Amino acid sequence: MCDGEHRSPLAGLLENNRVWSETMQAEEPEFFRKLVDQQSPEYLWIGCADSRVPANEIVGLLPGELFVHRNVANVVVHTDTNCMSVLQYAVEVLKVKHIIVCGHYGCGGVRAAMGATPYGMIDNWLRHIKDVYFRHREALDPIGDERARVDRLCELNVVAQVYNVCYTTIVQNAWARGQELTVNGWVYGLQDGLVKDLKVSVSRPGQIPQVYRMDTTNGV
Ligand code: CO
Question: At what angle do helices 146-167 and 169-176 cross, to 10 degrees?
């Protein structure tokens, strides 16, 4: 390459990729070949799209070990065909044993949902989190420190989304079939890289409110 020749702004990424591929194959020559024909992850990760929360790295899992869905502020909406398709495939085809909803402290989406500043189209998406805020406003509003208030809503949002996962026909049908499936809620700390387990794991219909429970005795 001569001086001044145009270098793609993404050249560094492609070079990183080449080095990564070589390193992986040096460590385990059959690594990629084994992944070509199948994946059998035991976990579905539903996390925030935030660039500081890379799912696989946080939990030390390799390609093939974690099925991942990410969106702004890890929201699970029953009419979101994207999220529902990921969930259905993960549960019914891959038969993951655990679903992890992982939010993170200092989430910009959660902070925006707590405020009144308009950001455009995304405000409609974040409205789901504002609903969580509204439900818990009596507990949240007395928290004087803004960062602490946002962080608490980050936790409450994860809990709400854990239950939203459980309310889906997908998860309830899996339980009705006797499939082993637990939905967990975690929050990741940007400041120390550590995950906090919110201990809201749900693994059977008896743990969700009666109103949301489907009568699956006659099948669907
Ligand atoms: Co976020």
Answer: 50
